[in-house]
Amino acid sequence: xxxTSQRRxxxxxxxxxxxxxxxxxxxxxxLINAGFSVNGFDIDPVAAKRAEDNGVKVAASLAEAAADADxxxxxxxxxxxxxxxxxxxxxxxxxxxxxxxILDCSTVGIAYAKKLHEAAAKAGVVFVEAPVSGGTxxxxxxxxxxxxxxxxxxxxxxxxxxxxxxxxIAYVGGPGAGQAAKVVNNLIMAVSVTVNCEAxxxxxxxxxxxxxxxxxxxxxxxxxxxxxLWNPAPGVVAEAPSSHGYKAxxxxxxxxxxxxxxxxxxxxxxxxxxTAETAxxxxxxxxxxxxxxxxxxxxxxxxAEQAKAAKAA
Length: 313
Ligand code: NAD
Fold this sequence. Notes:
Layout: H1 4-10, E1 14-18, H2 24-33, E2 37-41, H3 45-54, E3 57-58, H4 62-67, E4 71-74, H5 79-87, H6 92-95, E5 101-104, H7 110-123, E6 126-129, E7 132-133, H8 135-141, E8 144-149, H9 155-162, E9 166-173, H10 177-205, H11 210-217, H12 225-229, H13 252-269, H14 274-291, H15 299-312
Parallel strand pairs: 1-2, 1-4, 2-3, 4-5, 5-6, 8-9
Antiparallel strand pairs: 7-8
Helix pairs in contact: 2-3, 2-8, 5-7, 10-13, 10-14, 10-15, 13-14
The structure holds nicotinamide-adenine-dinucleotide.
The site of nicotinamide-adenine-dinucleotide (NAD) has 26 residues, from helix 5, strand 7, helix 8 and helix 13.
């Protein structure tokens, strides 16, 4: 006779996880550790292999990953990627059983979220937008903050399904509401990262000891979350991307994407976002000059080079 724990294991839902990158890889690992069977898919074989090493069963296609899934999670770069993955003829919406819940944790912006909810309703599946904050550190430690946008009827089930991955799971409202919270949050974060880079480049040019300055700043009015976690000066915070050759972390092009989502949202509702527009220009300039896949704090290198060139001219 089977024991209760064996019966529970037998009835554990099967998961499909789409997008096994810097965030999706550690997040899907928590579900493996919680005892779920996870079928994963990523177009990048290196990302897929890393996930396979964690116990993810790597599928050859989206349709294969989705075929047996009771729940689908996705963690993809942008709205265009998510829309394509979900709505392609051989994509997720067409491949899952009717009524399956799909939790998309990507940052896609308000307009894409609404389009995805509409397409899901037509396809007869349940779409939940569940963007996250907390960075790769939060993904690694399962301490992410989730911002849910969906039909209220599904809010409790969605929360339950995100519990193994985070420590604050908020239902914000209907379609687009989760992304609205995420866009506003990341406006603050991305502008902070940008100004942290500007301040660091200035401090370095002024000859400050940036380690000593860090100790001052975290006890002063300059203190902020990304300055502590993702300090742009190498050697100041041991775990920060800057201390590891600016390996992402949070890629510059993804931060620029988040700023563009805020700028678009501001335009839609007539809100002035001058600092976000400037931060967007700087991050885009840095991405175009070779920094796109580096951590966003590598903007400090771009600014330092410019300062050097300006002084030499
Ligand atoms: P990433 O580039 O490391 O990972 C994205 C993965 O998706 C990649 O492995 C890529 O190969 C895969 N992918 C792209 N198109 C695909 C497709 N059609 N089918 C299957 N896989 C596909 O990016 P990330 O840092 O993991 O970010 C993912 C999302 O999370 C983004 O929306 C980002 O804005 C958001 N986010 C990132 C952070 C962070 O700190 N990195 C924090 C919060 C939110």
